[in-house]
Amino acid sequence: MIAIVVSALLGLYIFLPDFLFRKLAFNFRTVTKAPTGRFEEVLSGAEIALLPFIFSLVASKIFWWVGHWPGTVEESVAAKYSDYRTVITSLCSDAYFHDHIEQVWTALGHVWFYQLRFLFWMYTGLGIEILCAVLLTYYFGSLSRYPVYRWTFGKIFLGRASHWEVLLTGFAFPPSSRPSVEVDAMTTDDHLYAGKVEDYFLKADGELSGLLLKDFRRFKFNELQEDRKAGLKPDPKKYWKDIPGANFYLPADKIANLNIRYETRESELILDVERLLKSMDLPKGLTVSLENPASDESGQVPDRTPGPSGDMNPQ
Amino acid sequence: MTNDILRLRDALIRDSEETHFRDKIKQESGQIRRSLDNSGEYRVQTPKGTIVIRSAKRTA
């Protein structure tokens, strides 16, 4: 009997808060560690549940209505502790349970009520914790320069973030200027692809399993080499070829290396510069425009083409 | 791992081309002012193209 009660308490106080937190608060891919032991699971759950537990405990001491709402049991504090003693003793001894069955059931009803009320406030605290975690994660790019953030939230929760989340999304940048992530991917069979990272996938061990690209192109390296051999002076920028299709999946085991770039969208770039100029001591009424934007070049990708030596290392 | 994520973030921000040109604009506020006074415009190269800042007088 006591094992069932302990399991239920572990579930309600540790595993369920941990499960809810992982599902709702982590709006980033987490590191998937090697199979964890039971102790590590309990410790990890306790880490999450500790703050709402303390919140509930402290709030019930400070605010009268937290300790008495929802619902109240009309009894003294001494009677409350007596109820807990009765329940624990009956769990440890079947004889005591049978001898004091009426008293045990009454005490159990009270304790059940106290626990539900405590859990109500604890899960309220958990909700606040999840909301804070979502906001603090969302603003990681802006807040991560502050030591207080790094030594508190950064240390407690962000240890679970996958480094691929930082590399392949705009996670590290402030939300107001989150760039698009562009990659040049060299494959193991010497093909060079460029595109915008739409999504990425991880294996069970947390390693990259593949990339989903949009607006992708392939570099026609063989054609470039042939033109060079023919004595022409080809412009490498002209050798990027759009690939028909909307989604391009690149398995990670085919990727030899990745060149990752974080590019501000053109419209946001101008707004960014305007904001920057306003913050500086400059004359009023400045206008900002963008000339020769990269997208004007027939979709060609500038400055990322193989060198004349024939090597295919993206610059 | 925590420090890795934060270090990675620091490296990305530090090496971001956008950060470089923002820093350049901030550092060259004096030069921007002179250029705007003299020619009415200031140009800065970015990975997306050339940002052109024009004064109201020049635009008119």
Polypeptide structure, described:
The complex is a heterodimer of chains A (315) and B (60). Chain A has 11 helices and 7 strands. With 315 residues, chain A is of the alpha+beta class. Chain A folds into 2 domains: 2-143, no CATH class; 163-296, SH3 type barrels. In chain A, strands 1, 2, 3, 4, 5 and 6 form a 6-stranded antiparallel β-sheet that branches. In chain A, helix 1 packs across helix 2 and helix 2 (38-62) packs across helix 6. Chain A is elongated and about 105 Å long. Mean pLDDT of chain A is 83; it is low at 296-303 and 306-315. Chain B has one domain (2-59). Chain B contains 4 helices and 2 strands, in the order H-H-H-E-E-H. In chain B, strand 1 (41-46) and strand 2 (49-54) form a beta hairpin. Classes of the chains: A alpha+beta (315), B alpha+beta (60). The interface between A and B is large, with 47 and 32 residues.
